[in-house]
Design brief:
The radius of gyration is 18 Å and the shape is globular. By secondary structure, it is an alpha/beta fold. The protein is built from eight helices and five strands. The relative contact order is 0.11. A hairpin with a 2-residue loop joins β4 and β5. The strands form two sheets. The chain has a three-stranded parallel beta sheet. The chain has a two-stranded antiparallel sheet with strand order 4-5. The longest helix is centred in the middle third of the chain and has 16 residues.
């Protein structure tokens, strides 16, 4: 299969939102469906409005991103990724740029997407969340997957020293 065809079936959510500041929320969301997927504008806007409503952002369609909170911007980024009807979502540290109280809001959205059957690859430092929702966990060290398995096995009986060190540091940080 051609790489560009695969990419068209993926949605990407970046840790820094990557919303276009000069476009409204609605314009940010319909850009890819209209330009890259050749979806008629009316159809793309209708889908975008349904998604905005689902994620509690219907009243923000005409706003620019800088008028939104960090949690709202991240929800818009998730809506934008879903607007093309992807088969899978790639989520890169979607909570790292958020205030602690907004982290739970975004993680709840990811949890809901999983419940809906969305396939996701999630890079995160939110280990308790990964343990709760992941079907499989991969531990990366120096950019390579050094261990993979079920959340239970990785978090309760890691095989690799790098994984054990990382988890030990997390436990020590929580105690502080």
């Amino acid at each position: 299969m051609r790489p560009d065809r695969v990419r068209r079936r993926l949605g990407m959510v970046f840790q820094g939102y990557n919303l276009f500041p000069h476009l409204t929320v609605l314009e940010n969301i319909v850009l890819a469906p209209v330009r890259a997927h050749r979806t008629p504008r009316e159809e793309a806007e209708a889908r975008a409005r349904r998604l905005l409503d689902r994620f509690g952002l219907a009243d923000r369609a005409g706003e620019r991103p800088d008028r939104l909170s960090g949690g709202q911007q991240q929800r818009v980024a998730i809506v934008r990724a879903l607007a093309t009807g992807p088969r899978a979502l790639l989520l890169d540290e979607v909570t790292s740029a958020l205030d602690p109280e907004l982290v739970g809001e975004v993680l709840a959205l990811v949890r809901d997407l999983k419940a809906d059957g969305m396939t996701m690859v999630l890079a995160t430092h939110e280990m308790s969340f990964a343990a709760e929702v992941a079907d499989e966990v991969c531990f990366l060290h120096d950019g390579l997957i050094v261990e993979r398995g079920t959340p239970q096995r990785i978090f309760e009986a890691p095989e690799r020293a790098e994984t054990r060190r990382f988890l030990r540091r997390l436990l020590e940080a929580r105690r502080l």
